[in-house]
Structures are given as C-alpha cells and as structure tokens.
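Bug report

Summary: structure tokens for Glutamine synthetase differ between web form and batch submission.
Environment: batch mode, default settings.
Steps: 1) Submit the sequence below via batch. 2) Compare with the web form result.

Sequence submitted:
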Amino acid sequence: MLDIDKYRENVEPRDVWRILKASGVKFVKFTVMDINGRPRAELMPIDPALDVFRDGMPFDGSSIPSYTTVNKSDFVAVPDNHAVYVERWNDGKIADVFMNVIDDSGKPIMRDPRNVLLSAIYELQRSGFRALMGVEVEFFIVNNSSGSPALVDDGMYFEGRNTHVLLDVAAELTAAMSESGIGETKIHHEVAPSQYEVNIPADSPIKVADNIIIYKIMARDIAKRHGYVATFMPKPFWGINGSGAHTHISIWDLDGRNLFESKNSEATPEAQSAIAGLLAAAKSISAVVAPTVNSYKRLVPHHEAPTRIAWGYGNRSAMIRIPFYGRRVNRFEYRHPDPSMNPYLAFAAELNAVMKGLSSKASPPPPVEDIAYELNAEETPRTLGEAVGELRKSPIASIDYMRDIIAAYADIKEKEWNDYESIYKWDDTWSKITEWEYTHYLSTA
C-alpha cells in the first residue's frame, strides 16, 4: 500500500521553502488535483507557506467534486516536495507545489488522482518493474474574440515560415518549459491550421503527469499574453485533425534494462505482451483516456486518430504504433488518449493494462500494415455514453486503489453525457462542433 510519509521522507520541507525564498519566489500555489484533472489551489505568501510545507494544508474536501460529502469534509493535503515548479514565464514570483491528500490518520485518500497514480507505480515496482512515459501533447492556438474559436494561422505540418504564432508564442513556450523545470523539448506546427505539438520528455509517470498540468497552465498564460487562447479541447474544428496526447511507454526492470528494447526491427515478447494488455483494455478505459463528449468527434477515420483496436509498426492509423525509423525498437506509442484526459487516472489505467498483459504473457493479434480505418476490426466506443458503459464493467473498476475513484468518475461522465444528450442527439451532431462543447471544453479541457 502507498505510504505517503515514506514517499516524502527524502526531501526536507524547510530546505525546499528556503531555496524558493532565496530564488525570489513571493507566493506559493499549493495544488490539489480534482477528478477531472483540473488543478485546485490555494495561493499564499512565501513566509507563511513554510507552515504548509511542514504540516500540510487543511481544506474543504466536499467543495472539490467527488472527494467527499459535506459531513466528512475536513481534509489535509501534504506537499510533494519532489513536485515543485517555478513559474518563470510569470517572472518567477509564483511556485507551484503539487499535493497529496490524506485523512486524519495519515492514510492516502484514494479519491485523489495523484494518490491513485502513485499506487499504480508502487504496484509496478512491487512486481519488479518501472515505467517511463513521454507524451506528445497536441493543441490549438485560436482567437476567441467572437465567442467561438477562429484559426489564427494557415500553417501545415512542420511549417517553416516564421508566422507570428510560431515566432512568438511557440518560441516562448519552448523556453518557458526549460526554465520551469519540465525539461528541454521541441515544438512544431502540426497537420491542422493553428495546431501545434509539444513533447513532454520521458520520465516517471507521476513526473510526466505533473508536467502536463504545468504545461497546460503555462500555455494558456502565454497564449493569453499574445491575445490568443491555447485550447486542449480534442476536436475544436470539424473537418481537420483533432488533438491527441500520444503516450510513449516503455517498461524497465529494476536493474535498468529496457524490456522493450529490441536488437532487431521486431517488438520484444515483453513489448508484445504489454501491447496485448493495452489493446484488451482499450474499450474499457476509453472513457478515462478520451474523457469528453468532444473526444469522440476526434475518433473518426482519416484524421490520424484511432478508430480500430489494432497495432502496427510505423502505422499512425493504428491505436498502438511501434515507432520505427530504420533503427532499434525501444517503446510503443498509444494513440488513443487526448489532452483533455486527467493524466493521473489515464496513466494509472494504462499501467494496469500493461502489467496485466505482461504478467499473463498475453499475445496480441498480428500487427497491421494496411490503413486501420478500413479494417474489419473491433472499434473504439462511438460515444462517451458507450465508453462509460464499458468503464463500469472494466476490471479497473474492481482494483482496490481505483475502485472508489472510478465509480465516482463514471457517475460524473455519465452525467456529462446525459447533459449533452438532453440538448442534442448524437446522430445529428457527431459531425459538427456544438456551442455546448465550446462552453464546456474550449478553455477548461
């Protein structure tokens, strides 16, 4: 079982506070994650923040969706001193600190998405493995002055012209990622107009999940300064590519050997078993990795988003792709997720599926070479409603550390789907983006 005190013991709270104060930080933003992957935070001056670093932050758990009921609402969040970021893009005055939620006995609350992912990592380590993940986050930079989003450039994949967005916004984002501690990375224009992709460097799943949250905050702040909106809504425009969060996964043993690294051009037996596990779970975890009504308008043929549960080498139409550029095979890319996901829940679900495949030595179907959209193969759920139905009967819904949060999550997502269906019929609107979606997802997904 996850032990928060043991996880925190390697870093002295006062040392973290002292370094932040010496570096010029004026405020600390102590952040708790909600069930949707949205950060909830308390901002306080640097001097009183020392008490929170030492003793934790009391807060009303009933005011954050699905944490608890109003009659049992006094919770404490303790800082994860491994997860501290300085907002250099905002002059370095604010530090973001991620928190883990505990009860009055110090036991981790399993409605906290960070605790759920840490538990999945712990179970992986208990089996003798660790995971590395990296994510390609696609997003749009748009103008929203008219009440609905508008494209701001006509660029294409790997656009080389120095457009205003590429020269100013994208360049500033790349520099800010390095300065904030996310790491050195790259950014490029994606296939659709106004669409960009940034690489979140490979690291432990908890670090990458935190990095995604910080990146989304950063991107919105920087885009706003330039008069734009950075949106992580999966499909803001019909007729062009939507945005994915393609997740690269490798599994290592505790001696530092990559179990997916092959000496030839074929996936290792361990990689194939992991792929089999993830494919088997694809329908049941769809609501976690593609969590919005709008997500299922991205999952349509011929826009580089998966619609068939298949895998292949270098095949971007498949759900799982083995990146292969004539060199070694060392990871796979899961193309189902999109950037509106709660990365903590999504990664926990993915790791569980991967481990199930590894432990059973499962075998995947043959890799596909053809365009997967045209195959007579099992399809992804067609709507969020279908996906929630699959999630409720999923094996992850009965895992000790996920049972509680998945039940609550399914209820929230079912309500989201029902709210949409009370206004629109899917058969009439699957090929258009509605005002309801812009209201619910454009600035918050």
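Above is the batch result. After comparison, the two runs are identical; trailing whitespace caused the diff. The chain has a mean pLDDT of 93. The two ends are 31 Å apart (CA to CA).
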